[in-house]
Write a structure and sequence with these properties.
Elements (H helix, E strand, L loop, with lengths): L1 E5 L9 H12 L3 E2 L17 H14 L2 E5 L5 H12 L3 E6 L8 H4 L5 E4 L3 H10 L3
Parallel strand pairs: 1-2, 1-3, 3-4, 4-5
Helix pairs in contact: 1-5
Length: about 130
């Protein structure tokens, strides 16, 4: 299965290490198209150019089978990716830590999305690994 992992880049890299671990867990059985999101050296200001980033990311979103998003760190880009995925009928799983953020009503109020709350790293890794057995 091809997975598009979405996590904050320009919105902040506070959870980059967690993204790296979630991506590694997903890669145990699946292909992750967006491994770079978990790259700890990734800058908040990528140098590829905005147009190229948009074109690559939307191509990956169209190609993927499912989207997994970590939404604790607020990101306009991730929000856009989620709406794009829904518009293209992609299965979407959203993870967030409710003790650190309140998920946007535009996500939590949309029955299309599969919402997963978690408390810590161990919790999210267990949930991610259980998604597709």
């Amino acid at each position: 299965m091809k997975i598009y992992f979405a996590g904050s880049i320009r919105g902040g890299r506070k959870d980059a290490e967690l993204y790296r671990k979630v991506i590694a867990a997903l890669k145990e059985k699946h292909q992750v198209l967006t491994e770079h999101v978990g790259d700890l050296s990734l800058s908040t200001m990528e140098d590829k150019g905005d147009k190229a980033i948009y074109e690559q990311d939307t191509a990956w979103l169209r190609e993927c089978d499912v989207v997994v998003a970590e939404c604790t760190q607020v990101s306009l880009g991730v929000g856009y990716e989620l709406a794009y995925a829904e518009a293209h009928n992609k299965e979407v799983h959203i993870f967030y830590r409710p003790n650190e953020t309140q998920l946007s009503a535009m996500l939590s109020g949309d029955d299309y999305f599969h919402i997963h709350r978690y408390n810590d790293e161990k919790d999210i890794l267990t949930q991610v690994r259980a998604l597709w057995g």
